[in-house]
Amino acid sequence: MSSHPITHFPVAGETLRILHLEDSLIDQELLSVTLELAQLPWVPDIRQVDEQAGYLAALSEFRPHVVISDYSLPGYDGLSAFVAAREAIPNLPFIMVTGAMGEEVAVETLRRGVTDYLLKQRLEMLPQALMRAIAEATEKVRRELAEGEIRALNGALQIRLHEVERLNKVAEERRLQLEKTAQQLEESLNLQKTFLAETSHELRTPLTALLGYLHRVEREVSALGGDSQTLRDARRVAENMTRLVNDLLQLSRGELVQSIEPHFVNLAELLQAVGRDYGVAVQSPEIELVADPGRLTQVFVNLVSNALRLCGEPGKVSIHARTEGREVVVGVVDHGPGIPDDIKARIFDKFYRGKEAGSAGLGLTIAQQVVQAHGGRIEVLDTPGGGATFEVHLPALDDDEDESWDEVWDKGWEHGDEGRE
Question: 101: buried, middle or exposed (CB in 10 Å: 19+, 13-18, 0-12)?
């Protein structure tokens, strides 16, 4: 016989299935009348059986909510019926009714797990015993269901805890891996700084000597009454290289580019010189502003060299200058592969090397710091038709103001201070 516990006992107004095991017709009729007169909260559905086979069949087919059984029957007994009931329906209430029962027998039935017992002479107590048995069984089922839910929750919690432990282990492994990667990056950055500093020191000596020789040759040519644009361009390039080496050394120490020496600058001439050095076209009206000519040359040299690195030929790079209100705008335009949007925000970071961005690691960083020191800014735009445009915005010279040289000097340093903030 299969075992299926009851998971729901009837509430008021529902049908209460009662299996009555009794071989006496008079006792059967008396029990039925007693329950009908008791006005129970349920609707009683009583099935009466008087022998073992019918009783066992009713347990499976009728699925009673409660069993009321005589203690002694011909060929069968109440305790055997109780054992069969609990095997078929584990939590089934079982009430024993008998004509005579000694104290020892009553104790034994309760010890075996019988819900309650009554004497046939006290059958009027059956409704209360029945209600008490159903209430106890209902509470027991509720408690077992709650305990089952708790066990299920505990099982789920254990699974979650194991998952949390696994994730914690993975997170710890990731943390150690990130620490190792950060350490490697720090070591790599330190190596870069060391290399940069050592290289800068090594380059300063020959550049200083070269610049001295160029100054000497230029003076000798001038003493002979001659003039050479080639010599002037060579000296200017050597000065720019010396300034670049000094900036690299400064950046390797974690410092900002700060040295700005303001002068009145003819922007068109400055841009033409850069264009001549790299063979790129320049379109610029006559614009005068207050700036450090060497530093501005350095900015546009870095921007043009980066553009050429991506495009591969001077014909795809050009320089355009214009005035917009109180600003001077110089655009270095290329028709190369362009710069993806996710890289634009990073290309000015120190030591960032991006093939797509055309950054060598420090050139754009230096350019941005120099422009900021002048009180300006650099913007990265997409070139119509493909490519990238670096726009340098600088404060324009106000023609309506009659500034003394000291005022111009102070203004230049004021811009420099803003750039260093």
Answer: buried
The domain boundary, picked from 119, 145, 171, lies at 145
Amino acid sitting at position 200: S
CA distance 284 to 323: 10
Residue 19 CA: distances (Å) to CA of 34, 55, 88, 93: 15, 8, 13, 11
**pTM for the full model?**
0.44
How far, in Å, CA of 331 to CA of 393, rounded? Answer: 9
Eight-class DSSP state of 102: -
The SS3 call for residue 98 is strand
Residue with tokens 């690299």: 248
Residue 24 has a pLDDT of 92
- CATH code of 97's domain: 3.40.50.2300
Q: Is the same domain home to 265 and 118? A: no
- Of 267-276, 296-305, 400-409, give the lowest mean pLDDT range: 400-409
**What pLDDT was estimated at residue 27?**
93
Q: Which tens digits make up the pLDDT trace of 81-107?
A: 999 999 999 999 999 998 776 677 777
| CA 353/CA 360 separation, integer angstroms | 5
**Count of Cβ atoms closer than 10 Å to residue 324 Cβ:** 9
Decide if 35 contacts 126 (C-beta within 8 A).
Answer: yes
**Residues 378-397, buried b or exposed e (16+ Cβ, 10 A)?**
bebeebeeebbbbbbbbbbb
Q: Which helix (H) or strand (E) is 94 found in, with range? A: strand 94-98
- Whose CA is closest to 247, among 394, 154, 153, 360? 360
CATH number at 271 reads 3.30.565.10
Reading the block at residue 284, the tokens are 């610029």
Range of the domain at 263: 256-420
The C-alpha R_g of the chain, in whole angstroms, comes to: 50
* Within-domain flag for 215: no
